[in-house]
Structure formats: structure tokens, C-alpha cells
Amino acid sequence: YQYRVRTGKAKARKYVNRGTDIAVVDETTEDAQVPVTEFALAAEYSALELQQAQAGNVDLLGDQANLVARGMAEYEDRLIFNGQDSSNASTKITGLTSADAGFQTISSPKSFATADPMAIRTFFQQAVGKITHLAGYASAKPVLLLPQARIDELNVPVNEYNPQITILNMISPWFSSVQAVPELEGQYWHAKNASAADKAKDMGIICVNTPDVAQIPLAMDLTRMATEVHNMITKIPYLERMGGLAVRYPSAFVQLNGIN
Fold this sequence. Notes:
- This protein has 7 helices and 13 strands.
- The protein is 26% helix and 27% strand.
- A hairpin with a 2-residue loop joins strand 10 (228-230) and strand 11.
- It is α+β, with helices and mostly antiparallel strands.
- The mean pLDDT is 87.
């Protein structure tokens, strides 16, 4: 899947009458591509299992279809957030947690669990500023993505005198939504050979999720393939083809490190 990544600069200068040295915006684009990968999952049941399910008023086919949909959706999420490692560069998919994706980064001086509430607020203000200070994004309200455990740490009172005000309350106005993403837990995005300490380190992401910034290249939607029957066992495979996230404006993504 081929697309274009854009970078731009816009800096005005003082103008004098009849001046010819007028500053101009500078926007460049370069071609990029992400490989498309395919993945599959199948529902499977025997004739006896189907009969037993029907006798017990169990919707076996419906249950398995739901499991297939959930399993495929989880694989999609892993591709988008964690990418796909490969020794072949042409088949490697970069995820939102990748270190070489060209995103902006910011590190919290202390973990959410130990930092002062106002220090956490300042951290998020600086992180959001990395996007809102971009040309054309002053009024943007990005999405905040965090592991659920980190959201829980923000959902605590600022102090004992104002139990109704949480850290999450203070920072929520800067975001269009706050969403829990399991794939941002350290156990999912660190290298397999990383130390136990590194695998315990989570990541957060602040991003603008509009189509002009990023899109998911879907080459083939979830499709039911031909049913296979062998030895009274029925298998119904489902196939999907997609790439990782095609990010056209990497600066609109900020990785949050040091949060736990």
C-alpha cells in the first residue's frame, strides 16, 4: 500500500511596503509504503458437537462466529499498535509503539503512581502542546490512548480536600476521548528478548486520528472462504488482508514514555 508522508514549515516574517522577500510555506511530501499482510482464523465443529449444542439450545455457530470476529479484531489491533517483525524489510510493519516510526516522544519525569498530580497535569499539557503547536493544529483535540492500569492511576482525587476532582478530570478537556488499549502494555510491544524490567514499562500515545493524518489500509475485508468438510468435521475459514497504520503526518503522534 503506497501513500505519501508530508512535512511542512510555516514561518511568517515582518513585511515592509514593496518588499520582495516574502516568506513562503514549505511543504514536502515523500512516497512511503506499508506491506499488506494476510491473516486467517476458522470456526470448526463436528457433526456431534453441533447436534449436542442444538439439543441444549446453544448457538454454537453464532458463538464461534463471534470468537472469530474477536480474534481477527485483536490481530488487527496488534498490527496497528505493535507492528509485525520480520527479517525481510519489505514485509516488516511498523506499529505505533515502534521506536523507528518517526513519531514525537516525551518522557514523564516520574511514574503516574508516584508523581504529584500537578506534575502529571504539566506533563500532559506539554505532550498535547507538541501537537497543538504544529501549524494548523492549534485547536486540535487529540485522542489519548493508555493501558487501563494507567488510566486507573489518573482516576484518583487530586487531594483529600477535593475528592470529586481527579487528575483525569483535569486533563480530559484537552482530549476528544480517552481510550484503553491493551497493546500499549509493555509485555506486548517490547522485544521478545527484552528484560523483565523493560517488559513492565508501558507506553501511552496522543494522536490526531483524522483520515488526513492516518488510515488503515484494508486490502480485503473480513471474508468467509469456502467451507471445508472432512471426516464429519466442518471448518469455516475467514481471511483478511491489511497493512499496519499508514501515517501520513508522523508529527501528529506523540509517544508517552516513563509513565510507570
